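Supplementary Note 3. Input sequence used for the single-chain structure prediction.
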Amino acid sequence: MSADPIIADCEAAGGTHLTLYANRMELHGGDAMEIVPLAHLASVRVAFERDPRKLHWALGLLATALVLASISSPLRNWMADLAAKVSAGGGRESLDSVLIAGFTAFGNLARLLSPLAAFLAAVGVALLVVFWLGRTSLTLAFAATERSCSVRGRDSRLVEFAELVGEQLSARKG
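The predicted structure, written as discrete structure tokens, is reproduced below.
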């Protein structure tokens, strides 16, 4: 593509490929390619970030899972006891039948709370893992716009790429 020597090469999320040359940067991503002269690049920023919303959702889901798991068995037992007391009364009155059916239905719904709690806990743990891994983001600022690329987790290659771009910018402007 070019006879110029490549100074740095980096792969980011979404198939974005960044290539740094002495006088320009090429961004390849999906079906698009962009060539940016380093003279148009104002600054480079690289940061490791964690999304606090994922932590909040994870903690909320884990708390909900804990509440559901803790009330499932007592609620199921309570409904079974109430149904047994009504049926021990002896008569087949219509009210007794309705109460027994209602208590049995609530008991069966309470039985579903344990699997629901396990599912919510699994989703909460997955969100905690995603929060803990974080993202390394590279932002290239131009005069009127900026481009961002990110990679899951701490990525030293993206940090090194940003340092090389910064060195090229300071060499050109200094």
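The chain has a mean pLDDT of 84. Strands lie at 8-11, 17-20, 24-29, 32-37, 41-49, 135-142, 146-152.
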